[in-house]
Amino acid sequence: RVSSVLNRDVKQFGKKHMFDGSEETCWNSAEGTCQWVTLHFPRAVKVSQLHIQFQGGFSSQLCTLEGSRAGEEPVKLPVLYPEDTNAMQISFAQLVLDKLKITFEKSTDFFGRIVVYHLGVLGER
Protein backbone atom coordinates (compact mmCIF):
# COMPACT_ATOMS: atom_id res chain seq x y z
CA ARG A 1 0.00 0.00 0.00
CA VAL A 2 1.06 3.58 -0.59
CA SER A 3 -0.11 6.91 0.79
CA SER A 4 -0.95 8.42 -2.60
CA VAL A 5 -0.30 8.35 -6.35
CA LEU A 6 0.31 11.42 -8.51
CA ASN A 7 -2.97 12.49 -10.14
CA ARG A 8 -4.38 9.08 -9.05
CA ASP A 9 -2.79 7.71 -12.22
CA VAL A 10 -1.93 4.22 -10.96
CA LYS A 11 -1.29 2.94 -14.48
CA GLN A 12 1.58 5.38 -15.01
CA PHE A 13 2.77 6.08 -11.42
CA GLY A 14 1.39 3.24 -9.27
CA LYS A 15 3.13 1.28 -6.54
CA LYS A 16 3.80 -1.74 -8.77
CA HIS A 17 6.47 0.28 -10.58
CA MET A 18 8.77 0.19 -7.52
CA PHE A 19 9.09 -3.58 -8.00
CA ASP A 20 8.97 -4.12 -11.78
CA GLY A 21 12.75 -3.86 -12.34
CA SER A 22 12.37 -1.21 -15.05
CA GLU A 23 14.57 1.87 -14.98
CA GLU A 24 11.86 3.82 -16.81
CA THR A 25 8.96 3.41 -14.40
CA CYS A 26 8.44 4.66 -10.85
CA TRP A 27 5.99 5.27 -8.03
CA ASN A 28 5.26 8.97 -7.85
CA SER A 29 3.37 10.26 -4.83
CA ALA A 30 0.93 13.13 -4.85
CA GLU A 31 1.77 16.37 -3.05
CA GLY A 32 1.85 16.49 0.73
CA THR A 33 4.06 15.74 3.67
CA CYS A 34 4.69 12.33 5.16
CA GLN A 35 4.18 10.03 2.21
CA TRP A 36 4.54 6.34 3.03
CA VAL A 37 4.82 2.79 1.70
CA THR A 38 3.67 -0.30 3.61
CA LEU A 39 4.86 -3.78 2.66
CA HIS A 40 2.92 -6.85 3.83
CA PHE A 41 4.75 -10.17 3.58
CA PRO A 42 2.81 -13.45 3.31
CA ARG A 43 4.82 -14.86 6.24
CA ALA A 44 7.53 -13.68 8.61
CA VAL A 45 10.78 -12.79 6.84
CA LYS A 46 14.24 -12.08 8.16
CA VAL A 47 15.19 -8.78 6.55
CA SER A 48 18.90 -8.12 6.02
CA GLN A 49 18.93 -5.18 3.57
CA LEU A 50 16.64 -2.43 2.32
CA HIS A 51 17.38 -1.03 -1.15
CA ILE A 52 15.79 2.20 -2.32
CA GLN A 53 16.35 4.37 -5.37
CA PHE A 54 14.79 7.82 -5.51
CA GLN A 55 14.71 10.38 -8.27
CA GLY A 56 17.07 13.19 -7.26
CA GLY A 57 15.08 16.24 -6.22
CA PHE A 58 12.15 14.03 -5.16
CA SER A 59 13.77 11.99 -2.41
CA SER A 60 13.33 11.88 1.33
CA GLN A 61 15.96 13.23 3.68
CA LEU A 62 14.43 11.35 6.61
CA CYS A 63 12.75 7.94 6.55
CA THR A 64 11.20 6.43 9.64
CA LEU A 65 10.61 2.68 9.70
CA GLU A 66 8.14 0.58 11.64
CA GLY A 67 8.06 -3.19 11.59
CA SER A 68 5.71 -5.68 13.12
CA ARG A 69 4.92 -9.36 13.43
CA ALA A 70 1.38 -10.68 13.07
CA GLY A 71 -0.70 -9.84 16.14
CA GLU A 72 1.95 -7.56 17.64
CA GLU A 73 2.21 -3.80 17.93
CA PRO A 74 4.53 -2.02 15.44
CA VAL A 75 8.07 -1.34 16.63
CA LYS A 76 10.10 1.70 15.58
CA LEU A 77 13.23 0.72 13.70
CA PRO A 78 16.43 2.69 13.05
CA VAL A 79 15.89 5.94 11.13
CA LEU A 80 17.33 6.32 7.62
CA TYR A 81 18.86 9.53 6.24
CA PRO A 82 18.97 8.97 2.46
CA GLU A 83 20.92 11.21 0.12
CA ASP A 84 19.17 13.34 -2.49
CA THR A 85 20.53 11.36 -5.42
CA ASN A 86 19.49 8.96 -8.18
CA ALA A 87 21.84 6.25 -6.89
CA MET A 88 20.66 3.03 -5.26
CA GLN A 89 20.93 3.38 -1.49
CA ILE A 90 21.32 0.39 0.81
CA SER A 91 20.55 0.08 4.50
CA PHE A 92 21.47 -2.96 6.59
CA ALA A 93 19.36 -4.54 9.31
CA GLN A 94 18.62 -7.89 10.93
CA LEU A 95 14.88 -7.96 11.58
CA VAL A 96 12.16 -10.58 11.53
CA LEU A 97 8.80 -9.11 10.55
CA ASP A 98 5.55 -9.56 8.61
CA LYS A 99 4.94 -5.89 7.84
CA LEU A 100 7.23 -2.95 7.13
CA LYS A 101 6.12 0.68 6.92
CA ILE A 102 8.48 3.30 5.48
CA THR A 103 7.43 6.90 6.11
CA PHE A 104 9.10 9.60 4.05
CA GLU A 105 9.11 12.41 6.62
CA LYS A 106 11.04 15.13 4.80
CA SER A 107 10.89 15.41 1.02
CA THR A 108 13.50 17.37 -0.92
CA ASP A 109 10.67 18.51 -3.21
CA PHE A 110 8.98 21.78 -2.21
CA PHE A 111 5.53 20.19 -2.63
CA GLY A 112 6.37 17.05 -0.66
CA ARG A 113 6.34 14.63 -3.59
CA ILE A 114 8.40 11.43 -3.46
CA VAL A 115 9.55 9.45 -6.52
CA VAL A 116 10.84 5.89 -6.02
CA TYR A 117 12.22 3.91 -8.96
CA HIS A 118 13.19 0.82 -6.97
CA LEU A 119 12.35 -0.55 -3.55
CA GLY A 120 13.76 -3.90 -2.54
CA VAL A 121 13.84 -5.90 0.66
CA LEU A 122 16.49 -8.61 0.84
CA GLY A 123 16.48 -11.39 3.35
CA GLU A 124 15.25 -14.92 3.88
CA ARG A 125 12.12 -16.75 4.93
TrEMBL record:
Recorded GO CC terms: nucleus
Top-rank taxon: Eukaryota
Keywords recorded for this protein, A-Z: Nucleus, Receptor
Subcellular localization, as worded in the UniProt entry: Nucleus
Coiled coil: none
Key word Nucleus present: yes
Protein name: Nuclear receptor 2C2-associated protein
